[in-house]
Structure formats: C-alpha cells, structure tokens
C-alpha cells in the first residue's frame, strides 16, 4: 500500500513537470488570427432633444392717431431785397514822377528825379537824374582846414520793349565825379611828373540786349548783347571798353545745358610809370570768357557742373581755367537749405575799376590783373517766416596778385620796385601780394510784425599773406545793422549802425593803424499825403573822427532834411 502511494505521488509529480514544460514551450509560439470581422461602434441615440413648438396664433400691432392743427402767429416779416447794381470802382492813379530834394550841413545838397512810363503793354522806359555835392570844410590832424568839394552827377535813360516771345532792353548813362585831394599835403622837395590837387572822372556807357522768352524749357532760349563804355579823367587818361556777350540754354531730358561767353576789347591811354618817368604809355588788352555748364534738379537737390575758361590777350597775356560747381540741398522744405560751391575768376583791372574802389589814386595808375585761382564756399539758408530769413556762409580763397592801396612813395614789393609806385604823399598807388583768405559771414533779416523790421550783417576775414606784413586798408571785421519801425501810417523811423574794424596802412615807409569806424545814424519820415513826404537823416551822431583812407578824414556829425514828391 505504501509502495502504491509512492508510485502515485511520483506519477503526479512527473505529470506536473511535463505540463509546466509544455506551457513554457507554448508561450514562445507566434499566434496569428485571420478574420474579416471589423468592429464598429454604433452611434449613440441622443435623448432629451428639445421639441420645436410652432405657434399658430399671430398678433398685429394696431393704433389710431390724429393731429389737431393750430395756427401760430409770427411777428417777423421779411423785407424786400433790392436788385444788385454794378458800380465802377475809382481807378487808383499810378504816378510816374518822383522828386527828392534835401540839404544839410557841410553845404550838402541832394536832388533826385525819376520818371517811369505808365500803362503800356509793349514798352516801358524811364529816366533818372541825380546830383549830390558837399563843399564844407574839414580839419586835418595838423590843424589845417581843407575843402573836399565833392560832387557827383548821374543821368540815365533805360527801357524795355516786349515782342511776342522776346525782349529788347537798352540803357544809356553818363556819370560825373569831381573832388579835391584834400588829404595829407604834398611833401616838399619831392619830384613829381606833374602836380595837381583835384580830379574829375567822366564815364559814358551804352548797352543793348536781345533776350528770348520761350515758356517751354525745351525750346532754345538765348541772349545777345553789345556794350560800349568810355572813361576819362581830368589829365587826359582815357579808357575805351567795347564788348559783345551772349548766353544760351536748352533743356535736354532732365537737365538744362547752358553756355555763356563774352569778348571785351579794352584800350587805356596815358598811363604813368614812375621808374621810367613815362607818362604817355598805352595798353591794349582783350578779355575772352566762355563758360559751359550743366544744371540738374533731382527732387530737393540741384546742382551745376561747369568750367570757365578766361584768356587775356595783349600787353598782359594770360590764360586760366576755373571750375564752376554749385550744389543746393533742401534739408527742410521751405525752411532750411544747404549750399556749397567751387569756382574762380580772372579780373582784368582797369583805371575805372580801381578809381571806383579808391578815388584818391594818382592819375594814370596801371594795375596788374588779379586771379582768384579757386574759391570754396558753403553755408546754410533758413526761411524763418514768410518775411524773415537767415544766412550763414564760409569762404576760402587762393588769390594771385591781389592789389592793396599804399601811400608809401618808396613802397617795395617782394619782387622789387613797383612799376606803378608813386612819389606823391597825398595820392595812392598799389602793392601786390599773393594770399589765402578765409571769411565767415552771417546775415539776419527779421520782420517781427507789420511795424518792425530788423537787419544785421557781420563778416570776419583772416588774411594769410605771402610777403606783405599786413593787408593794407583791409579790415578783419565789418558789421552793419539796421532797424525800421512804422509807428503809424504817416510816421516811420529808422536807425543804422556801420562798424569797420581797425586797419593797418603803409605810408612813407611807416606802418600806421587806422582806428575802427562806428557810424551811428537815425532817420524819420512823415507822409503828409499820397503826394508829399518829409524826411530827416542824421549820420555819425557821436561825431567820431573817422578815416576810411589814411590821410583823408571823413565828415563829423552830418545830417540832411528833405522832401519827396510823387506825382
């Protein structure tokens, strides 16, 4: 029995081990199930949807109304409107004549007459006559009383005649100036070619210009002109200047092409050379100029690109080529502009141009030509308001043979004796020098309101000379200020200040210093009616002793009272 139990137990154990092994072997098999069955989930049926209710009962809004009218009495009654009538306005008469007459101390007399033609569609012309003289006495530094006896006269006729697309302009004039060499007296024992103590200039001129006025910029516009001028002094020194000039411009694409040209023939007779005591020397020269350029505007930027060729043929032959470049940029429209440029110029100096710069030169002075090799400039222009503006500019120049006035009778230039030096002690000659100069200029014009206007201009210049110690008679600082105030429709007041800084001068081998000039003046005008006005002006109110040219004092306090007629 025991043996049977053991056998059953062993058989059961064997079966359990076999079953466990078979289970492990079956788990390692891969079972694949193939069937066409695809499970789907049916849509769930929603429960609880709100039922729609259709109301078959309708209501219509209905109401009754009525207006009970009642008249309202109004007291206003419109008046009748009169029919309009055309009435002619009184024509404001345009006056063609004006006449000024004034007198003052120093036996001063001023007269000015102008006439302009009226209401002409084709032609306008005018005439102008002016006289100014002063004959009072002045006192020199040594106490001597002298008489300047200064007189000026101008007569001119001018006019324009308008064609369909052109204009013809002409002007003829005559200028006369006479004065005394009232300054430093002549030195005793000085040998002069001829002695004299007064001078007289006569200047006659005529010019005519024909100019086209085509409105279309693509059409050629041109200008042609001729001129003639004759200048002479009291001692038979004379000068003739005859010339022709012209210009043309046409727009091609976005740019404007232009060409300017001129040719002048100048003959001067009876010049004086002190080193050879030659008094009857004649000079003939021709000045030719041609200046092509291209102008272009691109939005707020415009420029000019050109070149200028100038040649002097004759006694002083010379040829120079100069740039002609300008730029302008609008930084703020109608408010601020920036400008810059580069150019140069050849000046043919004549006895007329020199006498206009300084009338106290000796008769027959011959001056060499001046060349501005290049001039670089730039600055800003500002439009403060409709009637107010400001400007600031800077300029740098290189100049050959710039002349300076000197009264030194043995003045010497770096190259040796001057060909035009003077032995006079009361008349000026010139001395030359090459130089560089830089200048700064500021200008302000303010129209504060309808009554008050202010204007100021200041300029500072620094000279760098190649030989001379100082730029004779040339100031470093200059200023002008003006104010105008309209008190009423009848009364107007004005004030003016002119300031010229100290200047170095050469006289008889000595360097002198001219004091600064500060000329303050006041004026007033009273408009009596549309025809008559009365005015008074006063200059050098502080009675300062001033010298514009060494040896020649200017007038002290001086004034004029006058009237003006318009008829």
From TrEMBL:
GO-annotated molecular function: siderophore uptake transmembrane transporter activity
A cellular component annotation (GO) from this entry: cell outer membrane
One Gene Ontology term from the biological process aspect of the record: siderophore transmembrane transport
InterPro entries: Beta-barrel_TonB_sf, TonB-dep_rcpt-like
Signal sequence, start to end: 1-21
Keyword annotations of the record: Cell outer membrane, Membrane, Signal, Transmembrane, Transmembrane beta strand, Transport
Mode of membrane association: Multi-pass membrane protein
Compartment annotation: Cell outer membrane
Annotated coiled-coil segments of the chain: none
Highest taxon of the lineage: Bacteria
Listed SUPFAM superfamilies: Porins
Name recorded for this polypeptide: TonB-dependent receptor
């Amino acid at each position: 029995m025991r043996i049977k139990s053991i056998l059953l137990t062993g058989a059961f154990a064997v079966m359990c081990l076999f079953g466990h092994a078979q289970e492990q072997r079956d788990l390692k098999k891969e079972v694949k199930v193939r069937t066409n069955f695809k499970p789907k989930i049916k849509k769930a049926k929603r429960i609880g949807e709100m039922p729609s209710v259709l109301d078959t009962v309708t209501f219509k809004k209905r109401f009754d109304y009525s207006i009970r009218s009642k008249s309202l009495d109004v007291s206003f009654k419109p008046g009748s409107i009169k029919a309009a009538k055309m009435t002619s306005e009184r024509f404001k008469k345009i006056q063609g004549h004006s006449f000024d007459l004034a007198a003052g101390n120093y036996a001063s007399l001023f007269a000015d007459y102008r006439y302009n033609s009226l209401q002409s569609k084709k032609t306008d012309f005018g005439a102008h006559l002016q006289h100014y003289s002063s004959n009072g006495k002045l006192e020199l530094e040594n106490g001597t009383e002298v008489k300047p006896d200064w007189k000026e006269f101008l007569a001119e006729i001018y006019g324009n005649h308008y064609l369909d697309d052109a204009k013809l302009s002409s002007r003829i004039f005559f200028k006369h100036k006479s004065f005394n060499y009232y300054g430093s007296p002549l030195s005793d024992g000085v040998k002069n070619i001829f002695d004299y103590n007064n001078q007289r200039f006569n200047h006659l001129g005529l010019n005519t210009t024909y100019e086209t006025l085509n409105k279309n910029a693509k059409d050629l516009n041109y200008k042609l002109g001729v001129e003639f001028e004759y200048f002479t002094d009291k001692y038979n020194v004379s000068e003739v200047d005859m010339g022709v000039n012209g210009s043309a411009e046409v727009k091609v694409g976005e740019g404007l092409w232009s060409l300017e040209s001129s040719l002048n023939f100048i003959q001067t007779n009876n010049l004086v050379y002190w080193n050879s005591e030659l008094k009857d020397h004649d000079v003939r020269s021709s000045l030719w100029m041609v200046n092509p350029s291209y102008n272009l505007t691109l939005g707020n930027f415009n420029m000019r690109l050109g070149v200028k060729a100038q040649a002097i043929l004759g006694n002083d032959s010379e040829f120079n080529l100069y740039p002609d470049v300008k730029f302008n940029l609008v930084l703020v429209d109608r408010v601020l502009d920036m400008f810059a440029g580069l150019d140069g110029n050849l000046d043919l100096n004549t006895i007329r141009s020199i006498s206009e710069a300084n009338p106290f030169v000796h008769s027959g002075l011959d001056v060499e030509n001046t060349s501005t090799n290049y001039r670089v400039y730039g600055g800003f222009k500002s439009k403060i308001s409709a009637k107010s503006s400001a400007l600031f500019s800077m300029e740098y120049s290189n100049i050959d043979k710039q002349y300076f006035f000197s009264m030194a009778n043995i003045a010497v230039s770096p190259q040796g004796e001057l060909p035009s030096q003077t032995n006079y002690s009361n008349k000026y000659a010139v001395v030359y020098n090459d130089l560089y100069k830089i200048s700064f200029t500021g200008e302000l014009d303010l129209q504060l309101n309808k009554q008050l206007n202010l204007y100021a201009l200041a300029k500072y210049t620094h000279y760098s000379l190649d030989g001379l110690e100082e730029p004779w008679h040339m100031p470093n600082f200059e200023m002008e200020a003006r104010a105008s105030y309209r008190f009423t429709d009848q009364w107007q007041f004005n004030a003016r200040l002119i300031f010229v800084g100290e200047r170095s001068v050469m006289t008889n081998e000595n360097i002198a210093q001219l004091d600064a000039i500060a000329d303050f003046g006041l004026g007033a005008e009273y408009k009596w009616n549309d025809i008559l006005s009365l005015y008074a002006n006063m200059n050098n109110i502080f009675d300062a002793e001033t010298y514009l040219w060494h040896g020649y004092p200017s007038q002290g306090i001086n004034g004029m009272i006058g009237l003006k007629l318009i008829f």
